[in-house]
Write a structure and sequence with these properties.
It is a single chain. With about 270 residues, the protein is an alpha/beta fold. It has a single domain, classed as Rossmann fold (3-Layer(aba) Sandwich), CATH 3.40.50. Helix content is about 45%, strand content about 25%. The chain has 10 helices and 7 strands. It has a 7-stranded mixed β-sheet. α1 packs across α2. The radius of gyration is 19 Å and the shape is globular. It starts with 9 loop residues before the first helix and ends with a strand. About 40% of the residues are buried. The mean pLDDT is about 95. It holds the Pfam family Methyltransf_11.
Length: about 270
């Protein structure tokens, strides 16, 4: 398996992360650049946040979107109404395309869930033409996602299992400053540039924040699903207390930073 992201239900993913990747996609596209008529590969398309944003941004010749998860592929296909978009299941580390097929190979919020992230970058470079662009963005789990760190720091204070979760979560691939840029350079991309992109995650209340995690979505939900009834109740109460922070339940807003990197195929 080439992805460590677990997904059970597309709607749950949308509440957990899809709605935020939709906000991040336009910023990523501005950083990456696009030109009319280009052929684009979207690696790890999820439910289509970047795929459909690309189609809205430019008059592209073709968009090919792939994802490892059949749940994501099925949902993205269901949503698609654009004949210029093709969506299929595939492995980011073994892309089923010939060399140099695409003008740009892009991956939004994917590489940190690929254990062999360097291999995925190599594959993106392979399928992009000379002069083409390879670009990716990942969340900064350690220092740039206070809303999620609120949860992992809370569970880390409760148990050894929580501390282990925090260690895994904060140090996934490509997340440390300069790490993704070094990987792009190692894969012999040129004119490599790294930047930061920021959005805000706005929640209506604690249930809006907690429901998809409580349902087992994503890496944090996967941890919660392992807890017994007593630990689950203790965790729910502790995370609620952290969210509310001594005030009545209601809206909360968290800044969230992603690292973005772009390179050119020589």
């Amino acid at each position: 398996m080439t992805s460590s992201f677990n997904v059970h239900d597309a709607a749950g993913y949308e509440q957990l992360m899809g709605r935020w990747s939709q906000k991040l996609a336009p910023l990523f596209i501005d950083f990456v650049g696009l030109a009319d008529g280009e052929k684009i590969l979207d690696v790890g398309c999820g439910t289509g946040s970047l795929t459909f944003a690309l189609a809205r941004t430019a008059d592209l010749g073709e968009i090919v979107a792939i994802d490892y998860s059949p749940v994501f592929v099925e949902e993205a296909i269901r949503r698609n109404t654009d004949p210029h978009i093709t969506i299929r299941q595939a492995d980011a580390c073994a892309l089923p395309f010939e060399d140099g097929m695409f003008d740009r190979a892009l991956a939004l919020l994917v590489l940190h869930f690929v254990p062999e992230a360097g291999k995925a970058v190599a594959e993106m470079r392979r399928v992009a033409r000379p002069g083409g662009v390879v670009a990716a963005a990942v969340w900064d789990h350690l220092g740039g996602m206070p809303g999620m760190r609120m949860m992992v720091d809370t569970v880390a204070a409760l148990s050894e299992g929580g501390r282990q979760l925090r260690g895994r979560y904060c140090f996934q691939p490509m997340m440390q400053p300069g790490e993704m840029k070094r990987t792009f350079v190692e894969q012999e991309l040129v004119d490599v540039t790294q930047t930061q992109l920021m959005i805000r995650m706005d929640y209506q209340n604690f249930d809006d924040y907690w429901a998809p995690i409580a349902a087992g979505e994503g890496p944090l939900g996967k941890y919660v699903a392992t807890l017994d009834a007593v630990e689950r109740a203790r965790t729910d109460a502790a995370v609620r207390d952290a969210y509310e922070a001594g005030r009545p339940d209601g809206p909360r807003s968290f800044a969230n930073v992603a690292w973005a990197c772009r390179g050119i195929v020589p």
